[in-house]
């Protein structure tokens, strides 16, 4: 832990500077940046203009000073409030970019079904924005994800398959199933178009059956215009969403005055897009990964190999991501993660994430999800490593609202030996 600030005039001066900086960076009605700080995105939205629908309201989220962590470390620790997007998470940006690029390329058309394998947040975002493009959504989700995520997705009008967690190499991994569903939707649409052409019109379903006696597939509606697999892990639209949006926003909101960025990775899109943009603007900005238990990314970054003790022969777990944090940690290198520009990595534990979430709720009123809490663990670790007087930015991915049944459930945490007990930040000592 960084030493506490000394009393006296230094405290007054430091607090004054901190408050002034906080006010400056959190004022979203900033003037247009100079030419060397402009975003590469051609779709940049002004916060002073009226938003045209839900999609236009995504992005331009506030950057806030996390007061408790800043005061404790002597660094300015800033959080990008992605939980304020319409769909409630950073994945809204990715959902929009994936769908818009797919529509533009012709891989998806209005009336089509977007399929995805997701632990929750990307699925919720796709289900949120797909109707704005005249599309539907079908999600395959591991059944150990918080149940409220499935409930939210279904409430948004998407169809949901909950499946058992298995290795990505298994044909029934939730991502692989989602990919198959897109192919099945294309086959279904093609078959229906052929029959409609032969009969000279639409084949109307009656009591769940079409006139040719074939049962209607419950997954796909009769007017399905094909399927598109979003493929958030490998689709570089994910990276581009953050390279063109999140990264430039952070740069502008800090006026380029930041020293480091830290975040966890699931698909790797956020970490890659933001780190790539920031280091292009200023190579001196250091970018770091924070990795949860069971993930191999920490070892990949620090040692160049994908290996964890949990992956040793005879010790591999049924679910290799043995962590309470959802949506982060992985044991393979995705195309998105390969784009990241990293200077190092930190490891965080489940206990640290749980304690951090309660600490931020108590001291800052921030009700954050598990990945956001882990990001804040990483921010403090980074502050401890580089010392006071630096500005560090991280991502507040989503709120705690979709983590009630597990991450914020006292009984569930007790069963895992994760009951929070800390009064301060001693758990990171």
From TrEMBL:
Superkingdom of this protein's organism: Eukaryota
Low complexity: bias regions: 32-45
Biological process, per Gene Ontology: cysteine biosynthetic process from serine
Subcellular location(s) of the protein: Mitochondrion outer membrane
InterPro entries: Cys_Synth/Cystath_Beta-Synth, P-phosphate_BS, TrpB-like_PALP, TrpB-like_PALP_sf
Annotated catalysed reactions: O-acetyl-L-serine + hydrogen sulfide = L-cysteine + acetate
A Pfam family hit: PALP
Swiss-Prot/TrEMBL cofactor(s): pyridoxal 5'-phosphate
Domain Tryptophan synthase beta chain-like PALP residue range list: 56-398
Gene3D superfamilies membership: 3.40.50.1100
Region (Disordered) residue spans: 31-51, 186-208
Family recorded in the similarity comment: Belongs to the cysteine synthase/cystathionine beta-synthase family.
Official protein name in the record: cysteine synthase
